[in-house]
Amino acid sequence: MDWKQTGNERLATAEQPVTPTHIVDAVAANEGRYTIVDKKLLNDTVTLMEVSAPLIAKKAEPGQFIIFRVDECGERIPLTIADFDREKGTVTIIYQHVGRSTKMLNQLEVGDAIHDFAGPLGSASHLEGIRRACIVGGGVGCAIAYPQTKALHRMGARVDIIAGFRSKDIVILEKEMRDVCENLYLTTDDGSYGEKGFVTDKLSSLIEAGDGYDTVIAIGPVVMMKFVCKVTEAANIPTIVSLNPIMIDGTGMCGGCRVTVDGKMKFACVDGPDFDGHKVDFDELMARNSIYSEQEKDHTCRLIGGAAGA
Amino acid sequence: MPNMSLKKVAMPEQAPDVRNKNFQEVALGYTAEMAIEEAQRCLGCKNMPCVAGCPVGVRIPEFITQCAAGEFEQAYQTIKSTNALPAVCGRVCPQETQCEALCVRGKKGEPVAIGSLERFVADWYMANTVEKCVRPASNGRKVAIIGAGPAGLSCAGALARLGYAVTIFEAFHLAGGVLVYGIPEFRLPKAIVRKEIDSLREMGVKVENNMLIGKVLSVDELFASGFEAVFIGAGAGLPSFMDIEGETLLGIYSANEYLTRINLMRAYDDAYDTPLLRHRRAAVVGGGNVAMDAARCAKRLGAEDVYIVYRRSLTELPARAEEVHHAKEEGVIFKLLNNPVRILGNDKRMVTGIECVEMGLGEPDASGRRRPVVIEGSNFELAVDAVIMAIGTSPNPLLSRTTNGLDVNKRGCIVADEETMQTSRAGVYAGGDAVTGAATVILAMGAGKTAAASIDRYLQGMI
Question: Are B261 and A292 a contacting pair at CB < 8 A?
Fold first, then answer.
């Protein structure tokens, strides 16, 4: 971007010109209502939602996230933008309904509005220069990795995907992933679909076979990212991970999402969420992410009407 | 004949051992009789020294004279004509270093309780008047304001009064900035903030929540979409940490995180979903209002021992005098001339203590305050299970990075002319913590007001 240009010059030359009236119209038409236009259950615990959010859709880039609040008393929960459609003005999120807030979100249907929906937050992924990539997704992490994969594919990079799931019944986005890569390698822990084994096993064998990856992008459970990074560090392949620490504001104000990268404190919401996986302190992240797990259990019990933990 | 009592009429308060277990307001406010009695202490000095101490220039003797005569509505209009948020300022301004510091009555005895009177008048007005808002005639010109905190609200109010079509873009789901995420309910009830913002809405100010400018729209796009001027009041930014060993242990918070969980996200209220660990012994590092707020919140959430760890002495403590007094009354323990050197934890990565050193005071430093010096070998350990860092913030680079021609200084704060709040870019003004670094609500409001006047002159083609 040329910083010497005036705003109007930059707007005129921008790849996706922003029509001035469009901004005003979008704000006015939206009126802060983030309506659900599509909802699909991808498996028993994972849902896809397409949400009307024209301004966010206009600016979203792979790697960025939104923060939603399901109602007036809800938490602020970050979710990676799984896809966006600038024409339709929609943003797609894919989430696992495990905690209270995502379970409440899942009770909303097409036509309902999400109370708050702010974004796009975080820095976009840096994908320039990648020619041959292996995307490693674990479970719902495959959804988070999808926009990067799609973008790389469109940029002409050769992309393979290793998608790992516990078992066949929870496999998601198989077709979508297949459409944006050269080779899709599915693995399941129990061997009920694809190859039996962990994503790290598959990645090791592909690297050994000499597939010549210049970059690995790993997105999934923290423990998976940690072990993928161990494999790629040994093979000296640069590895991008997308981190999901506990977050409140998502704008750089609270510092709750701080992670240690290369021995330095970074805020995932402004410096990330993508980081150099070889430099991330994953053990610290796992500990920080589990800090409220007891309270979360109690909340979830109350939500589903069971006996409260108290 | 003025009331020559040397002491202020005391404002009723909740008892310390009651209030340190609830989040209701500490100070309960004057009755009309108390307000009249206190207002009669004002000498109505012709040269009005107090007004010079007010960043927004409230005509103090005038409103106090009206208050003494029981003309509360007129008193309110007098305040409101220069101050967009009277009920807020009456509660959170550091009056002892501003208006009340210059009060002639303070030379012998206590100054007039200007803050308490301002609060009374604003509360009386809210309780007794059905807002008959006269929406100013629109001049059809659009101004965008980034951030719905004290600076932005004050700027919005002043511009709306002049007939501008003002839209505030707020990143959070709720308007108010530090008034809602930072300052706790027991010091500033959120219903009051809401009413002040509602009154701006009635004047025609639009507030768009969930809009992080710099991400969802740039300043350039705001201009392109028809806004003719922009005011940036985006607040202080990223919390600072000490960069000491153990700072990533569990149970360590920035004051911003701790207070946001409690105030904005209402973690103390069971109706809300926000999780928060309950700690038994908490250390708050820092000596400003934010540190006092965090310490008093920790106490209210059931911590048995709460410490303020501050590296200088009571004389240099920057917090508002009333907050220090209240915190002490509520049982907060002040560890002055102490500084943390590392944080200790167990094998589960939970905080177990904080190692501090004692400090002495040396020669004055650049800030004019005596420089704290480590006393070697004075290390000691304080057993705590939570540490809250309230040692300031550094500017969020989001707007300066995404806005053409917006200069920042070497600390990253937006550069704005002190007289006009004009930035390095034409049509863009800035004020509040985004310019000064962490400061007070009233200074931010003063900057917002100044910027509004400049924006008006700019759009009239006068500058």
Answer: no
> In this predicted model, what pLDDT tens digit does every residue of B191-242 receive, in sequence order?
999 988 998 998 899 999 999 999 999 999 999 999 999 999 999 888 999 9
The answer to whether residues A207 and A142 belong to one domain is yes
The tally of domains found in chain A comes to 3
Instruction: Report the distance separating Cα B170 and Cα B446, nearest Å.
Output: 20
Interface contact flag, A287 B223, Cβ < 8 Å: no
Task: Give residue A178's domain range.
Answer: 124-241
| Paired tokens of B401 | 């990075």
In the predicted model, is pLDDT for residue A28 greater than 90?
no
Q: What is the pLDDT of residues B222-231, one digit of tens each?
A: 999 999 999 9
Residue A181 lies inside a defined structural domain of this protein:
yes
Q: Do A94 and A53 fall into the same domain?
A: yes
Side-by-side strand order, sheet with B229-232: B206-208, B165-169, B142-146, B229-232, B428-430
| Whole-complex ipTM | 0.88
Q: Quick check: is A138 in a domain?
A: yes
Among A205, A266, A207, A197, residue whose Cα is nearest residue A238: A207
3-state DSSP call for residue B306? Answer: strand
Q: Which of A22, A58, A249 to mutate to test the interface with B (most CBs of B within 10 A)?
A: A249
8 Å CB contact of B239 and A254:
yes
Cα B79 from Cα A63, distance rounded (Å): 49
**How many CA atoms, within 13 angstroms, populate the side-chain half-sphere of residue A101?**
23
Same domain, yes or no, for A173 and A269?
Answer: no
3-state helix, strand, coil in chain B (%, to 5): 35, 20, 45
Q: Do A75 and B274 touch (CB under 8 A)?
A: yes
In chain B, whose CA is at the least distance from the CA of A300? B273
Which chain A residues are within 8 Å of B218, Cβ to Cβ? 7
- Smallest CA–CA distance, residue A126 to chain B, in Å, is 17
**What tokens appear for B118 in the block?**
């301002």
Q: How large a percentage of chain A has pLDDT more than 70?
A: 85
Q: In this structure, what token pair is assigned to residue A180?
A: 């944006």
Selecting from A23, A251, A258 the residue whose C-beta is nearest the C-beta of B221 gives A23
**A5 has a pLDDT exceeding 70:** no
Which pair of structure tokens corresponds to residue B404?
């053409």
Best of B142, B201, B215, B279 to disrupt the A interface (most A CBs within 10 Å) is B215
Residue A185 in domain: yes
Tell me whether residues B238 and A24 touch, CB distance under 8 A.
no
pTM: 0.89
